[in-house]
Write a structure and sequence with these properties.
- The longest helix is centred in the last third of the chain and has 14 residues.
- The strands form two sheets. This protein has a three-stranded antiparallel sheet with strand order 3-4-5, covered by helices on one side. It has a two-stranded antiparallel ribbon with strand order 1-2.
- It is α+β, with helices and mostly antiparallel strands.
- The chain is about 20% helix and about 45% strand.
- The chain has one domain.
- The two termini are about 15 Å apart.
């Protein structure tokens, strides 16, 4: 079975087409930076949203999972 990711809008993408993963971060008033979204850059140059997060713990878990499977 081939490894796949699913975008925020339920579009399946094969992992072999993913060039790299990146996080978008947000600065908070107390000078903290938290991740709030993870994107995948595809070989075609397209950037797709993998998911948005409401807390840093969820984003960290997703980053670890993506690191394992990438």
């Amino acid at each position: 079975m081939e490894k796949m990711i699913v975008t925020e809008y339920s579009r399946p993408i094969m992992m072999q087409k993913v060039k790299e993963f990146t996080q978008r971060t947000m600065f908070l008033a107390d000078e903290r930076v938290i991740p709030y979204a993870v994107f995948a850059l595809l070989d075609s140059g397209e950037m797709v949203n993998i998911g948005n997060f409401n807390d840093a713990d969820t984003a960290e878990i997703i980053r670890i999972i993506l690191d394992i499977f990438a």
